[in-house]
Design goal:
Layout lengths: L4 H18 L2 H7 L31 E3 L4 H14 L2 E5 L5 H15 L3 H5 L11 E3 L14 E8 L13 H25 L6 H4 L5 E9 L11 E4 L5 E6 L5 E5 L2 E4 L7 E5 L1 H6 L9 E3 L7 E9 L4 E2 L17 E2 H11 L13
Parallel strand pairs: 1-2
Antiparallel strand pairs: 2-10, 3-4, 4-5, 5-12, 6-11, 7-10, 7-12, 8-9, 8-11, 13-14
Helix pairs in contact: 3-6, 4-6
Length: 354
């Protein structure tokens, strides 16, 4: 007799729990010298369809220089947000040494002694710093080859003593820089929509900032898994700092396009909630991260998230020809649905369509 689906589910749950209980994450597997990745990390092959390689230069993600004229920046952000949902910014005001130290801080965190790190491993989202592997471990179809730490950096930054010494100062410093940049970005995005510069800020779109430090160890079988599965972001806006290794791709016109690492640049992408409040004017685009053999790759994602209030399509953008496409939702309800669904490759926005 073969195994039944129930047996397979039980086995999988057993494997997930065993992996979770090591508290050492994916890095722990690599440190043990794993050559074959566990089946809980295997992704079905269709996740890799329409893959492009890095030679696809026909589509280049817009790079916007913040030292050009304000009107030029607004025009470029408008076009990028309506067509790509992604752009990179340079000369954004965050010093290069801060960017470098933030990436180094992520490396220092994940490469500290395993026993020290284990004490911080948790799935309790109320802790000031949450370190684990795969936040949606028990809901998504396959695990991703990465470990993460998360903390909220605005509006109430953590107390220094609540953060690990190895990255405490830089997390607070970088968080403060991103908070300032976020205000600038929302002013530019408001103007790109033809609204008053303070419109999105006054909706508290950038009130809360979650900082995620991702660590993608080198993978012995990168063709079988993903660094991060295809998804769009459950935020208003995401500001991403990536290192030189690359692997981030966006889904554009049904093919995967690389987002090449540019020294000193930050990647900015529209999140689901900005697509919702702009009534589909700005696009929250699906993206993924490939597993790699070079590793470790590190990135720092800052999710600019909303306040506890109802969000729906902005009235000033609606008309008889452009009625609301989404119902109102609170940020908490949106995120609860997003997290429960897990990174299954589908957009949470569908659930809120009228």
């Amino acid at each position: 007799m073969g195994s039944t689906p129930t047996d397979e589910t039980d086995n999988r749950m057993h494997e997930l729990k065993a992996f979770d209980e090591t508290k050492a994450g994916v890095k722990g597997l690599v440190d043990e010298g794993v050559l074959k990745i566990p089946t809980i990390f295997h992704h079905p092959p269709d996740k890799f369809s329409n893959s492009t390689n890095s030679t696809n230069t026909q589509h280049i993600i817009p790079v916007i220089d913040f030292t050009t004229t304000r009107q030029d920046i607004i025009n470029k952000i408008k076009e990028a947000s309506e067509t790509w949902g992604f752009f990179q910014v340079v000369n954004h005001g965050i010093p290069l040494n801060v960017l470098e130290d933030m990436k180094d801080g992520v490396v220092r965190f994940f490469e500290q002694d395993t026993e020290v790190k284990k004490k911080m491993y948790t799935r309790d989202q109320t802790k000031p710093l949450v370190y684990n592997s795969n936040f949606e471990m028990y809901s998504s179809p396959a695990l991703n080859w990465r470990d993460t730490f998360v903390c909220s950096v605005a509006p109430n930054p953590p107390k220094p003593e609540d953060l690990p010494v190895v990255c405490r100062d830089i997390v607070l410093e970088y968080g403060a820089h991103v908070e300032k940049l976020g205000i600038t970005l929302f002013e530019l995005l408001s103007e790109a929509l033809g609204l008053n510069p303070n419109h999105l800020k006054d909706m508290d779109c950038s009130k809360w900032i979650m900082l995620l430090g991702h660590y993608y160890p080198s993978c012995p079988e990168p063709e079988l898994t993903m660094g991060t599965t295809k998804h769009s972001d459950g935020s208003f806006l995401t500001v991403l700092l990536q290192d030189h290794i690359g692997g981030l791709q966006i889904l554009y016109q049904d093919s995967w396009i690389d987002v090449p690492p540019i020294p000193e640049a930050l990647v900015v992408n529209i999140g689901d909630l900005l697509q919702l409040v702009t009534n589909d004017r700005f696009k929250s685009v699906e993206h993924r991260v490939l597993a790699n053999t070079i590793g470790p790759r590190v990135s720092v994602a800052c999710f600019l998230r909303g306040q506890e209030k109802l969000y729906g399509p902005i009235k000033e953008l609606l008309s008889k020809d452009n009625p609301p496409k989404y119902r109102e939702t609170t940020f908490t309800d949106y995120v609860a649905y997003y997290n429960a669904k897990g990174l299954d490759g589908s957009s949470a926005l569908q659930h809120f369509k009228i």
